[in-house]
Amino acid sequence: MISTHEDRATQEGDPQAESNGSASGQPTPSVALKELLSRIGEIRDYLGHYWAATSALAKLEAKRLAIAIALGGVALIALAGWLIASGLEMIEGTVGGLTALTGAVWAGQLLGGLLCFALLIGGVWGSLRFASRQAAKRARQEFEQRKVEQRRKHGRDVSTVSDRA
Length: 165
Description:
Layout: H1 5-11, H2 15-19, H3 29-102, H4 105-154, H5 158-164
């Protein structure tokens, strides 16, 4: 058996070794408490390190997100400006063409404004109609799925029950 320094000190009758509890193989309560406090301090340091790393990572992610949002905002503003400029040029060209056809500037501007207004109203109406039809289609599909589920669970669905009544 390999003997340690503490074992040799105990065999030689060292009172310091006996106070460390190595004579019985078990540490004394004071030694165990010191060891426990040392380990708790070590764990606290590790947790502090983990918390610092986690918070640093969260800060980095927040900075990246803020940069991405800022760049997205700049890109959105640039895109909106480009679309507005191209739309205005298109309207200006249309008005110029209508002015050439009618021979009067005011008539070309009036017809161009009316055309733009009609296109806007038509676009909004078409978008709303499309959205309404899509919502109705999704609702029909959802209720058909419910009927299938009812037939699977109960052997009949709400339409067969309501036909009997």
